[in-house]
């Protein structure tokens, strides 16, 4: 496995790269920009990344974001994303990467975040000078410099208005795949319009992080794809058009600022001459629509029906392939990124890796190996001790704070270090199983769990995942499934997109490898604990007055 933080050709790849045709897969995620190169036999042979906090400290982000004083507003500087692209391309060039062999590229972005292009920006995008980096030329192109991102939860008022405008939460979910969520882009745009009407009217185009990144490569505005567009509370997920009722409830002239959405596997154009002249890309290099990081991961893991994918990144997400959507008050239905007739379900847990890092720092001397040791030295079921750990207001369910319970369901104020670590990891995975089952998901004998994201490097964490779900856990060769999925999607788009089955185009892709199997006795332990966890979760929710109606 490669060190994910350093750009590296896989062994032997440097010599071969001159003749190696490839597709690039990008991921503009919360904490970093990452890229992989995948060759025509679908092998990953190059990976690179730029980490915002570490490599661009002048933007002063923590975990790639700025949390504002109200603790609800969370933004990221748009120019940091632009500069990260400059930096990563320069790193690739310095390492000898041969851009002329890139047949096509696609990418992913953290979902829901929005970028506001100022009037005149399209002209600047179309006339980029290859002599200068992008960030120097795009400085004045944004009407809002700090983009609202998925961690923002400041738009409750806008959410209630949107639901009321379309006949309630369930009606909105039937239309757009989700009830109103604070981070969903329509509500974020409504807040921008209400609080900053001048910036809104000075905006000629609104992009998602994904379509913004695609626009940088195209040198013109890229359309939003159906799958990432499903995370906005604006797209009619069955008809695949913007819902006029939702647009009207959010902000005026919104349709023209969004442009028309397109199937996720569309070729949206050829790469801008900027990249041909500055980096040596071939003029025919195609850009396939960018999508959300979770939809891209679904493609990267080549999810099959019955499987469940768990992404352990900044956020933890869980997703499934669906034929028939049944939108509900919890979870989300998105258009499927690789088959526009089908859908995917997604559950998002905001307290993912950053929460695990906090408990690691407090209880395992800032060391993942100490953290793992604690998991190995404690028993499945944690002697009945259960914990809920939410540093920031959780999405699934809406709980904040730490809540620890002993085997008698009595709330306690602290646990010893290793009990705390097991309580955190068991609790995170029990919540995932309980809420997936709430969407109708059932673990079956043939169930595979596909794990990805930074924490899927940790075998001891994956062992707890296998034990709690009672199913084997598989990983693909890289934890960057959103990048790999983006490169796969580029090949699919190149092969004909909607006219060709994704699975057909992916026949050569390597199978995932087994990382953990359930330990003997796991199912008895967790069959007893899961209902207790669910009851305690309800108890906390009703004490905080946030139980779902
Ligand atoms: N060995 C490990 N054990 C647990 N978590 C890890 C390990 N290595 C990395 N991580 C976690 O992975 C996270 C980054 O995951 P990643 O999927 O790359 O994030 P994103 O795509 O959201 O930027 C880090 O915040 C870190 O906590
Ligand atoms: O909000 C969601 C999904 O609905 C998040 O999953 C974002 O898409 C951020 O992704 P990561 O940076 O954690 O991969």
From TrEMBL:
Keywords: ATP-binding, Carbohydrate metabolism, Kinase, Nucleotide-binding, Transferase, Xylose metabolism. It comes from the Eukaryota. The keyword Phosphoprotein does not apply. It holds the Pfam family FGGY_N. The keyword Nucleotidyltransferase does not apply. GO terms for cellular component: cytosol. Its EC number is 2.7.1.17. One of its GO terms (biological process) is xylulose metabolic process. CDD domains: ASKHA_NBD_FGGY_SpXK-like. It catalyses: D-xylulose + ATP = D-xylulose 5-phosphate + ADP + H(+). Phosphorylates D-xylulose to produce D-xylulose 5-phosphate, a molecule that may play an important role in the regulation of glucose metabolism and lipogenesis. PANTHER family: SUGAR KINASE, XYLULOSE KINASE. Monomer. This is Xylulose kinase.
